[in-house]
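Field reference: sequence -> structure
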Amino acid sequence: MDILVPAALAFGLIIPIILLLYFMRPKRQERVVGSTLLWQQALQNLQASQPWQRLRITPLLLLQLLAAIFIVLVLARPAIFTSSPLSGDTIVILQASASMQATDVAPNRFAAAKATISNFINDLGPGDRISLITMARTPEVLIAESQDKGQLQAALQRASVTNQDADLEQALSLAASLAEGHANAQVVVVGDGHVIVPDQLLVLPFPVRYLPIGTSAPNAALLALSSRNLNGDLIALAQVANYSPTPRSIPVELYADGRLVNVQTATLAPGATGSLQWGPLPQSTRLLHARLVSQDAMTVDHDAWSVVGGSIHGHVLLVTNGNKFLETALRLQPDVDLFETTPAKYVNTNLYDLTIFDGFVPPRLPSGSLFFINPPAGSYIFGKSGADIRISHIGAGSDNLNMLSNVDLSSIHVLRDSHQLTPVSWEQTIISAPESPLLLAGQNNNRRVAVLGFDLHDSDLPLQPAFPILISNMINWFLPQPVAGNGQVVAGLPVTVQTWPGADQVTITSPDGHRTVVGPPFPVEPYSRTDQTGVYQVTQRVRGQTLQGAFTVNLFDPGQSRLAPAQALPIVHSTLFASSNNTVTHQLREIWPWIAALLLLVLCAEWWLFSRSYRQAAPARQSAHQFRLSRSMNGRRAPASLAANMQYQLQESFRVAKKRLAKVTKRTRSKLTR
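Structure field:
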């Protein structure tokens, strides 16, 4: 401990002054005695009036000396210098990715990192400031440039771990904006270093220190889960990884629609990955769930979910006199329940999500989406359909609807004739020719419509690999799944749910049961609450009917499942926190406010003790005072106590003796005068 104002110690002279006053202070006390025999004690007290006497140790003396010492210490401003790893303007980046859930550091890495930052805040010096940033897929500023330890601790407690990646580049970009204008700014990254690796090493204008959290704990993880149809059988596939220093046998459970299918074991070398296969599964299976049976430091990567085919199955009606190419392509679609009829037997029931008319257009169109193939001349009411024309060659038009994804139009060599199509304002030309558009598509009044201007039998398109791909892309546009692709979403990534035409309400239910209405309005806003792993249910209300869909969120991130902390960050000239040359800086902490608080307590105790002694001595003084005031003109009342009565008699004797002495003196003077 150091003294900031040593000259104030001169005020310590007050201590001998207090002792001197106690040496020289008279000790007279007012006493009421009942007899002259007690005068001897009174005479002894008079001896205390001598200038010097033996010092008596009393509680009041001790309290006054203690108060004087505290006053001198407060004036001298004692302080201590503590060691703090932070100084100046510091930006602390707290990693909040999935790997920070690992329990190899009690209670887990994220809690240990928060405890370390909490210690930084407690050791914060009077001129230092801290900014807090959490680093996940999207970094977030918890508090900026604060010296208030209470606010900093409250902001730190609001931080929570996620199931996401950690984007170091974005976090440092945010830190750079906070450090702008501060010459002494520095950044401290607290975490295990499992971050999205940038394309090249990052160069920053301020120093960056890395504080590793965690150990090289073993772990196993699921990296993929999917399904496919193989020779008419439904097969489930899973990929397993062993991120451990020793070989391991890892049991994996597979559930189909909540029922256990089988348990298989993957035997893997250190750092190796392997695949497991289950099948055949029931064709009615809609949801797969795989689970690792393993005790590891992290478990969020031990479960995985996958939607089989499409989570929403659409009812499709094909009205044709016979088209094996189209029928086969439609039956290959996993999310289509196909029904067929002929134009002669067609009845408008409004029960189908998509109706395909091949060479036929009814007088009254049904509800739902519509796909016209080779419509009769003059019968296509959503665009003019004229006489047949000869087509020279075909090409791609505008593909904003992604219908031509992976479709090679150059493979089509034969096309005899096509109807002359004239698109309306809401239609797009998907496939074009110099003479006329060949495929038009668009959405009108919340209904999706497409028209193909030629007969499939008049071209070699059905014989090309591009045909089933084109039909699949069109079905995905007509009957969109909630999430495009395989229905799997990366944790923390916003999702734009694809709604069916005619939907008037869309609701998403997260794995924890939280319901969010994302539509209306339409188109729906991106859904960002995708941090939890599991199955998200999507409910759509379409023309009075309820459609149930789903998408899944899985970790599937080797960078997060490898638990060994990174040795360094991908930053030029970054240093480890423990080996930095400027790790320890001295921070001043004055302790005189605590001494002042003790001084206040001492003064309160001294005042209480003095007032208590005064109240105890007051009755004796009051009794003597009342006795002196009890005289009357004609006599005296009897004193209230024996001691007071004896004093009264003694005073009367003095008064009579004094009166007689005065008379004798008067007579003597008279005689001398004569």
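Note: The chain has five domains: 2-81+593-627, 86-215+564-583, 219-309, 314-478, 488-553.
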